[in-house]
């Protein structure tokens, strides 16, 4: 009975999101709005990886923008420059992200996690520097154009691309839910607590840190590829500081360690500035202030607003379980 | 009180834990000095000694938190002196901690389920490929976890966050978590520390029950009465060396022990 | 031969800057286990307020320097009272506090952007930039001043930490904050001192490098990262190891840029640091942290 609940809670959210997401293009009139919802999908994928890594496993990476750009550049170079097909370039770019994450992660993950934070940030900055200066290979600060996708002679339209992204995002959320509602999620959460206790229970702490770091890098790379396809270009700004600021703001505002915090935060961060165009240059200040205020006063982010509702629902579901357990307790 | 000692199975049996000449040095300090002892299947084995005698260090050598400077720790017929910490639970070794170490931010049940970890599919990709099996197993785990919680008397708190549990219940939770890993040897580091009399008595009963079902137990404890009533065999450490070993009766009359540790108590009694 | 001299001198100048930022980061980390992400922003504030006080307000040099240092102290207090303390009171983890300091860095550079705009601005020099022949080397007073101030600040830090009773408190807090506070050391004062002292160091760095780098509101992040790289290369546990790490990084950077291409400098240093961490996880010169969890 409890497990039926787990499975339902795993599938329910993503199914609802898929349904709503599928209806969105019918309600939107302009291509600009379609672009915004596409960006929401991209940020959700990006921040779901970050949330698994930091929100659940307590290991922070400030280089997600580096992997975001690595995925985008790898994909574009393979497809546009090397002439690979989409179906070969996509997995190859993700493998590149995974391998680089492994190379960085192995020396760093044995240390305290702020080493990971700062070293990954270095990675992001180094990547941005190389991308903007290695002009003959990366196109310098101007970047490169990404050819539009073709399948069987048919050019993929923006709406079709959005549906693909929506499906991808829902799959990523499903994967996340599968991870956090099984032993994998417990292993991840044990990492942010007591490592000795986790190890003595058989959790290979180093391996799990590495696994989740690689997964989050691959998800960042995937988001980067999606972003390259939506914006039809890649440039060094993919790996620059503002992307990191967005990732952190989305994760913290939406709610770290919550299932739908990434989506919630992405909606807020993408949609809110549209209504507040007057802010202009002060946007970064506002991001910073939001980040700080949420860290202090709402550590569970916007997702933390719903727990009362959640708890009420959960209590209903749990009450019979406790009854059964108490009956069981009386037996022996 | 010492009814257990009369059990035939407790007196002799297969050696489970075989410590040979274990030595641990921290710089110039010898915390454990050439200690050898054997724990047999079905035994409750106690480690006694005054503060700083090296009990906890020895315990950490056995559980793998520390690697001995010299000597061997044998468990399940192999040398585990240098075996990685996370590989030990699969061999049948489970432990609790001197200062309770539970995972915050998780429910009581989830904490118990952590104990099953080493029996489950390791890794993200293998788990994804066998998603169906993982989910089915997850359902069984919840039932098994609830049964363990019921066994230690915490079933009603299964869905609570661990942060909300009082100290005594956390100790029980740690034991339930250790049992979840299906151990053949349970290592308890001062399990009665911070418990009141009633809780200590209940703990004693719980441990006896576990032992009667065939589980071997190694205990480090300060509470002498608790130890004397529970253990089949005791070793006494002082200044890092083993100064005596034997049944509780033998220990109580051992001159070295009286001098080093029980001395004052004995003269009062 | 002359080329290597010029390269090493350039390396030493940049190394002084990286080293001082690294020293500041390591000093704060030593008192409270928090990486201060806003460290580079202190330098940026130093540079930008130099423009404010010297160019916009036409203050005499010494008054301007005083004003810049007061700005640095105020910024440190704002960070400590407005970010560090509130998060500590709520029992936030060190990583959360680190994100808090990052938020502070974002706010600081955002506000600076509103005041000074995104363009690179010229910063007036305190010391002469006139070419100075020093044997075969060509340098200038500003460059020499940076190296001199680096040496001087190292000495001051060493004196504070090892020759004053308060330094003993700092070191004790660094080893174990809880035990130190049980021994009657006011850990909060040590932490506040860490913030103020490191902000002062960074403010001084700002005054000195402004004329060489120019003032740009986004310069803080790069400096923070360089400072942290210095600290992990040398060893986060000791301010002096961090300072040495800064010099090493800058010298390698200058050598790679001088004999190869500046394109490779950063990737090479990054790879070197990763390789080093694999073999010596707590830095080249630091192992005092290794035994601690």
TrEMBL record, chain A:
<keyword id="KW-0472">Membrane</keyword>
<protein>
    <submittedName>
        <fullName>Branched-chain amino acid ABC transporter permease</fullName>
    </submittedName>
</protein>
<keyword id="KW-1133">Transmembrane helix</keyword>
<keyword id="KW-1003">Cell membrane</keyword>
<keyword id="KW-0812">Transmembrane</keyword>
<dbReference type="InterPro" id="IPR043428">
    <property type="entry name" value="LivM-like"/>
</dbReference>
<feature type="transmembrane region" description="Helical">
    <location>
        <begin position="7"/>
        <end position="28"/>
    </location>
</feature>
<feature type="transmembrane region" description="Helical">
    <location>
        <begin position="34"/>
        <end position="54"/>
    </location>
</feature>
<feature type="transmembrane region" description="Helical">
    <location>
        <begin position="92"/>
        <end position="109"/>
    </location>
</feature>
<feature type="transmembrane region" description="Helical">
    <location>
        <begin position="116"/>
        <end position="135"/>
    </location>
</feature>
<feature type="transmembrane region" description="Helical">
    <location>
        <begin position="236"/>
        <end position="253"/>
    </location>
</feature>
<feature type="transmembrane region" description="Helical">
    <location>
        <begin position="210"/>
        <end position="230"/>
    </location>
</feature>
<dbReference type="Pfam" id="PF02653">
    <property type="entry name" value="BPD_transp_2"/>
</dbReference>
<feature type="transmembrane region" description="Helical">
    <location>
        <begin position="260"/>
        <end position="279"/>
    </location>
</feature>
<feature type="transmembrane region" description="Helical">
    <location>
        <begin position="66"/>
        <end position="86"/>
    </location>
</feature>
<feature type="transmembrane region" description="Helical">
    <location>
        <begin position="161"/>
        <end position="180"/>
    </location>
</feature>
<dbReference type="InterPro" id="IPR001851">
    <property type="entry name" value="ABC_transp_permease"/>
</dbReference>
<feature type="transmembrane region" description="Helical">
    <location>
        <begin position="285"/>
        <end position="306"/>
    </location>
</feature>
TrEMBL record, chain C:
<keyword id="KW-0029">Amino-acid transport</keyword>
<keyword id="KW-0813">Transport</keyword>
<keyword id="KW-0812">Transmembrane</keyword>
<keyword id="KW-1003">Cell membrane</keyword>
<feature type="transmembrane region" description="Helical">
    <location>
        <begin position="263"/>
        <end position="283"/>
    </location>
</feature>
<feature type="transmembrane region" description="Helical">
    <location>
        <begin position="190"/>
        <end position="213"/>
    </location>
</feature>
<comment type="similarity">
    <text>Belongs to the binding-protein-dependent transport system permease family. LivHM subfamily.</text>
</comment>
<feature type="transmembrane region" description="Helical">
    <location>
        <begin position="65"/>
        <end position="83"/>
    </location>
</feature>
<protein>
    <submittedName>
        <fullName>Branched-chain amino acid ABC transporter permease</fullName>
    </submittedName>
</protein>
<keyword id="KW-0472">Membrane</keyword>
<feature type="transmembrane region" description="Helical">
    <location>
        <begin position="6"/>
        <end position="30"/>
    </location>
</feature>
<feature type="transmembrane region" description="Helical">
    <location>
        <begin position="228"/>
        <end position="251"/>
    </location>
</feature>
<keyword id="KW-1133">Transmembrane helix</keyword>
<dbReference type="InterPro" id="IPR001851">
    <property type="entry name" value="ABC_transp_permease"/>
</dbReference>
<feature type="transmembrane region" description="Helical">
    <location>
        <begin position="95"/>
        <end position="121"/>
    </location>
</feature>
<dbReference type="Pfam" id="PF02653">
    <property type="entry name" value="BPD_transp_2"/>
</dbReference>
<feature type="transmembrane region" description="Helical">
    <location>
        <begin position="42"/>
        <end position="59"/>
    </location>
</feature>
<feature type="transmembrane region" description="Helical">
    <location>
        <begin position="141"/>
        <end position="161"/>
    </location>
</feature>
<dbReference type="InterPro" id="IPR052157">
    <property type="entry name" value="BCAA_transport_permease"/>
</dbReference>
């Amino acid at each position: 009975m409890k497990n039926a609940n787990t499975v339902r809670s795993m599938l329910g959210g993503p199914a609802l999101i898929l349904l709503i997401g599928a209806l969105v293009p019918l309600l939107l009139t302009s291509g600009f709005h379609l672009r915004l919802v596409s960006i929401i999908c991209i940020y959700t994928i990006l921040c779901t990886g970050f949330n698994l890594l930091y929100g659940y496993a307590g290991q922070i990476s400030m280089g997600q923008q580096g992997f975001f750009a690595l995925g985008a550049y790898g994909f574009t170079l393979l497809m546009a420059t090397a002439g690979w097909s989409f179906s070969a370039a996509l997995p190859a770019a993700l493998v590149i992200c995974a391998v680089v994450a492994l190379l960085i992660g192995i020396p760093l993950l044995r240390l305290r996690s702020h080493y990971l934070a700062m070293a990954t940030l270095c990675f992001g900055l180094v990547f941005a520097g190389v991308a903007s200066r290695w002009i003959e290979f990366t196109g310098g600060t101007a970047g490169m154009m990404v050819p539009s996708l073709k399948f069987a002679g048919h050019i993929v339209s923006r709406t079709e691309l959005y549906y693909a992204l929506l499906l991808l995002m829902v799959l990523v959320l499903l994967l996340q839910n599968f991870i956090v509602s099984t032993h994998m999620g417990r292993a991840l959460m044990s990492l942010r607590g007591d490592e000795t206790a986790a190890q003595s229970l058989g959790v290979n702490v180093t391996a799990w840190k590495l696994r989740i770091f690689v997964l989050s890098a691959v998800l960042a790379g995937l988001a980067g590829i999606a972003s390259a396809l939506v914006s039809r270009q890649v440039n060094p700004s993919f790996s620059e500081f503002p992307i990191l600021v967005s990732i952190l703001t989305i994760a913290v505002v939406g709610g770290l360690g919550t299932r739908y915090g990434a989506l919630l935060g992405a909606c807020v961060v993408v949609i809110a500035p549209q209504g507040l165009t007057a802010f202009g240059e002060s946007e970064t200040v506002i991001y910073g202030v939001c980040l700080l205020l949420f860290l202090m006063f709402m550590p569970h982010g916007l997702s933390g607003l719903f727990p009362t509702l959640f708890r009420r629902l959960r209590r209903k579901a749990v009450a019979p379980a406790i009854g059964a357990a108490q009956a069981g307790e009386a037996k022996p | 009180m010492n009814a257990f000692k009369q059990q035939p199975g407790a007196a002799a049996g297969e050696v489970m834990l075989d410590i040979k000449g274990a030595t641990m040095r921290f710089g110039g300090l010898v915390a454990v000095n050439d200690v050898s002892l054997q724990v047999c299947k079905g035994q409750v084995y106690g480690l006694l000694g005054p503060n700083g005698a090296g009990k906890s260090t020895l315990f950490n050598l056995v559980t793998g938190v520390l690697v001995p400077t010299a000597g061997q720790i044998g468990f399940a017929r192999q040398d585990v002196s240098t075996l990685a910490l996370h590989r030990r639970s699969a061999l049948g070794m489970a432990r609790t901690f001197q200062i309770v170490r539970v995972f915050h931010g998780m429910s009581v049940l989830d904490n118990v389920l952590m104990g099953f970890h080493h029996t489950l599919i390791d890794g993200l990709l293998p788990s994804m490929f066998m998603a169906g099996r993982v989910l089915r197993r997850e359902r069984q785990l919840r039932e098994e976890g609830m049964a363990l919680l019921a066994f230690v008397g915490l079933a009603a708190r299964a869905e609570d966050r661990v942060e909300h549990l009082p100290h005594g219940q956390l100790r029980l939770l740690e034991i339930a978590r250790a049992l979840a890993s299906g151990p053949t040897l349970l290592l308890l580091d001062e399990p009665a520390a911070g418990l009141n009399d009633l809780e200590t008595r209940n703990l004693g009963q719980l441990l006896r029950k576990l032992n009667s079902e065939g589980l071997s137990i190694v205990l480090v404890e300060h509470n002498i009465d608790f130890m004397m009533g529970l253990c089949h065999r005791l070793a006494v450490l002082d200044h890092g060396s083993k100064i005596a070993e034997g049944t509780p009766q033998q220990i109580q009359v051992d001159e070295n022990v009286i001098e080093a540790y029980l001395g004052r108590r004995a003269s009062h009694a | 031969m002359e080329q290597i001299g010029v390269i090493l001198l350039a390396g030493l100048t940049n190394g002084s800057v990286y080293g001082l930022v690294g020293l500041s980061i390591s000093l704060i980390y030593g008192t409270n286990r928090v990486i201060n992400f806003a460290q580079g922003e202190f330098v940026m504030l130093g540079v930008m307020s130099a423009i404010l006080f010297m160019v916009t307000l036409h203050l005499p040099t010494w008054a301007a320097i005083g004003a810049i240092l007061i700005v640095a102290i105020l910024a440190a207090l704002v960070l400590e009272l407005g970010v560090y303390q509130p998060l500590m009171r709520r029992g936030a983890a060190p990583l959360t506090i680190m994100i808090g300091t990052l938020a502070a860095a974002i706010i600081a550079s955002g506000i600076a952007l509103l005041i000074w705009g995104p363009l690179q601005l010229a910063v007036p020099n305190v010391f002469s930039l006139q070419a100075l022949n020093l044997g075969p080397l060509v340098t200038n007073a500003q460059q020499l001043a940076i190296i001199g101030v680096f040496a001087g600040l190292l000495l001051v830090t060493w004196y504070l930490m090892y020759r004053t009773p308060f330094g003993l408190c700092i070191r004790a807090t660094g080893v174990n904050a809880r035990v130190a506070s049980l021994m009657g050391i006011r850990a909060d004062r040590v932490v506040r001192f860490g913030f103020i002292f490191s902000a002062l160091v960074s403010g001084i760095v700002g005054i000195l490098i402004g004329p060489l780098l120019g003032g740009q509101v986004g310069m803080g992040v790069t400096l923070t990262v360089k400072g942290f790289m210095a600290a992990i290369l040398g060893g986060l546990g000791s301010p002096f190891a961090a300072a040495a790490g800064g010099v090493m990084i800058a010298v390698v950077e200058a050598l790679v840029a001088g004999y190869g291409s500046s394109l490779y400098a950063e990737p090479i240093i990054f790879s070197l640091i990763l390789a080093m961490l694999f073999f010596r996880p707590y830095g080249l010169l630091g192992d005092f942290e290794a035994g601690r969890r």
